[in-house]
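Render this sequence as a predicted structure.
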Amino acid sequence: MPMKLYIKNMVCSRCKMVVQSELEKAGLHPVTVELGEVVIEEKLTTATLKNLNTSLKKLGFESIDDKRSRMIEKIKNIVVELIHHSDKNISVNLSEYISQQLNYDYNYLSNLFSEIESTTIEKYFIGQKIEKIKELLMYDELTLSEIADQLGYSSVAYLSNQFKKITGLTPSFYKSLKQNSRKNIDDL
């Protein structure tokens, strides 16, 4: 009977490949490997699960076994997917979008997220958007106006104000820096 594992800090395609490789090294047979969630063919023994957790932890991942932590990870994965890996319009109503994706009341999700993460979903969302802006500024392929449009900002001024409020720098000054200080998605 297949077993589902929940894994923290899986935020990109490379993470999925690394986790799948680690599962296979442990002699396991993954059926599906998605952001934050893995289904394997086997039922794990306590010893095998402990060994797997140890090897995953060395790679920056962590098995999650409580329901509340799994929900937080799902919220984070939805936000990361929306901003970094999706062609969806980012100007969606975030609360409705998350609520629909998880089929839970947004107030419950918001309170749970705030309680566990000590920040709001909205601040997490803005932090992810700022990191995406930094990435796009580094690539130097889009104008600030195109970046604002892509990330659902109503204007370049609004994007610039929010960027400066979070980073302390204007987007153009940030772009001119030789060493850009981007953060890993999972460090946010």
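Summary. The mean pLDDT is 88. The chain has two domains: 3-64, 66-188.
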